[in-house]
Design brief:
Layout (H helix, E strand, L loop, with lengths): L17 E7 L24 H8 L5 E7 L15 E5 L5 H13 L4 E4 L1 H5 L1 H5 L4 E4 L3 H12 L6 E3 L22 E4 L2 E2 L10 H5 L4 E2 L2 H10 L4 E4 L9 H17 L4 E6 L7 H9 L2 E9 L3 H7 L11 H9 L4 E8 L8 H12 L3 E6 L7 H8 L29 H15 L2 H13 L4 H29 L29
Parallel strand pairs: 1-2, 1-3, 3-4, 4-5, 5-6, 7-10, 10-11, 11-12, 12-13, 13-14
Antiparallel strand pairs: 8-9
Helix pairs in contact: 7-8, 8-9, 12-14, 14-16, 15-16
């Protein structure tokens, strides 16, 4: 679909400028906002694409400012008073989003909140903002703005899953200079529905793909030479999905944009050598794959069906990808019910055996909207339950649940063993040398490994402080779980409807 370079005014007779602030909240515990203190962090943040897409749908009589607190936090009190504030938030950003909302509402400015947390915890959000947008916001954004202009904001707007030819190119021009990576979205939806993931609940089971021509045009408009494709799975799972992906890669090759990009994919990308060759020619520098668990029991537990294909040799799959000079980052989850003591070393060993270039290990985290949240809530196993304040710990880097075979302190120790093993100096240098020897994006490999190493010490400190804060008298349950979890008798509050 051909989109205008600038949205046309629905009512040309209006000449009064209306001021709109769109804000992506920070989470100080993640430690990425200090770009001046560490330029490495430029490689670990990306533009809030959802806000830039809404900006593209905003009529020109609105003066738009986009603030990404992951880059820097402005002094809102010193800024001109806006007429409307829009805030998005993942769960880990929610309590910061509420604080931002309070600042502006105290000044009489209406605040609308959207994003995945507001969708999954709409009642909670509604008590802290003037209006909540659930689901995909594009279909209702024009109505939100018109109602806000007239002072008639509704408390709730229900978005809907749109066809991807209705997604406009994002306003990348509104944020520039602070990011190593540009960002783009080419698909929405996921049919896999893993137990820990809320993508299916938010974007649906149906895998929706943007028209190839639209994607290539937006790619060309991105200023950065490095691009993050934010799709939850760029290549899809069916023959039809893969065929469209190949079409996209061929179009990018023909466009010859001179960009390198990374994307999330499933392991099936390794099964199609033509797909890999096209990806490399199209500029693919790396892929992020969710391996989730080194055991079949763990994969069954999280519902990662795609990784349970009989006879799958993960090391061989990784090598096939890397032969095309594409880096492989692998993600694992720690704290599954099937995990036992020693899981830290086991994950590190699996990552080494698979030969992945970058390891990202996360704590099992029950996010609202997932089957995991429902299950652990029913069993009374939500440990960090002081909502909304505790949402800041739901970054996937804190042990916020009660784990079957570990206390939270024990699980933190397992994580430290895993990280220290994989990211030891000798192992890091060996991986980077391997990337250099095989001409497999050595600079990106170096930056990624050093960035992870640099943030490990701060992450370990944050985890220890978190566990210590929860082991003080009256701080709540942070001990090894017992058999009572089988009957769910703890009765800890679920939090989504907490005041």
């Amino acid at each position: 679909m051909d989109w205008p370079t600038q949205p046309e005014a629905a009512h040309p007779e209006r000449t009064t400028t209306i001021r709109l602030y769109l804000i992506n909240p920070r989470n100080a515990l993640v430690g990425l906002a200090d770009l001046d203190g560490s330029r490495w962090n430029r490689y670990r943040i990306w533009k809030p694409l959802g806000l830039l897409a809404l900006a593209a749908l905003t009529p020109p009589e609105w003066e738009i400012s986009v603030f990404d607190e992951n880059v820097r936090t402005p002094d809102y009190a010193s800024l001109p008073r806006p007429d409307l504030v829009g805030v998005t938030a993942f769960t880990s950003q929610a309590n910061r989003a509420y604080r931002i909302a309070a600042v502006f509402r105290d000044r009489g400015v209406p605040v609308v909140m959207g994003g995945i947390h507001a969708t999954m915890c709409a009642d909670e959000a509604a008590g802290r903002v003037d209006s909540v947008v659930t689901g995909e916001a594009e279909p209702v954004w024009a109505q939100v703005l018109e109602d806000a202009r007239q002072g008639l904001l509704r408390p709730l707007y229900a978005g809907a899953q749109i066809e991807m030819d209705q997604v406009p190119p994002a306003r990348h021009d509104l944020l520039a200079g602070d990011y190593a990576f540009g960002s783009i979205q080419t698909t929405r939806g996921c049919p896999l529905n893993c137990s820990f993931c809320s993508v299916t609940a938010f974007n649906g089971y149906r895998y929706r793909q943007r028209p190839v021509a639209d994607v290539v045009r937006e790619f060309a408009a991105i200023q950065e030479k490095l691009v993050l494709v934010v799709d939850d799975n760029l290549v899809g799972t069916s023959r039809e999905h893969l065929a469209r992906t190949k079409e996209l890669f061929r179009a990018l090759i023909q466009a010859n944009l001179g960009k390198q990009w990374i994307a999330q994919v499933t392991i099936n990308i390794a099964d199609d050598d033509e797909l890999l060759a096209l990806a490399a020619q199209a500029g693919c520098a790396g892929v992020f794959i969710g391996f989730e668990s080194p055991t079949a029991a763990g994969l069954r537990e999280v519902g990662k069906k795609f990784n349970l294909v009989r006879g799958r040799d993960f090391a061989a799959s990784v090598r096939r990808i890397q032969r095309h000079r594409i880096l492989v980052a692998g993600s694992f989850i720690m704290g599954l019910d099937s995990d036992e003591p020693g899981i830290g070393r086991r994950i590190a060993a699996a990552a080494e055996d698979y030969g992945i270039d970058i390891l990202n290990t996360l704590f099992l985290t029950p996010l609202p909207g997932t089957r995991l949240w429902d299950d652990l809530t029913a069993q009374g196993r939500i440990a960090a339950d002081r909502f909304p304040e505790d949402w800041k710990h739901y970054t996937l880097t804190f042990p916020v649940a009660c784990y079957r075979h570990f206390s939270c302190a024990e699980l933190v120790q397992e994580m430290e063993v895993c990280d220290q093993t994989f990211y030891s100096l000798s192992n890091t240098l060996r991986r980077v040398w391997g990337s250099l020897w095989h001409r497999r994006k050595p600079l990106i490999a170096l930056v990624a490994n050093l960035s992870y190493r640099r943030n490990l010490s701060q992450g370990r400190k944050n985890c220890r402080d978190f566990v210590l804060s929860r082991t003080q008298p009256g701080a709540g349950l942070m001990v090894s779980p017992g058999p009572e979890f089988a009957s769910g008798t703890h009765g800890l509050p679920s939090g989504c409807a907490s005041p």
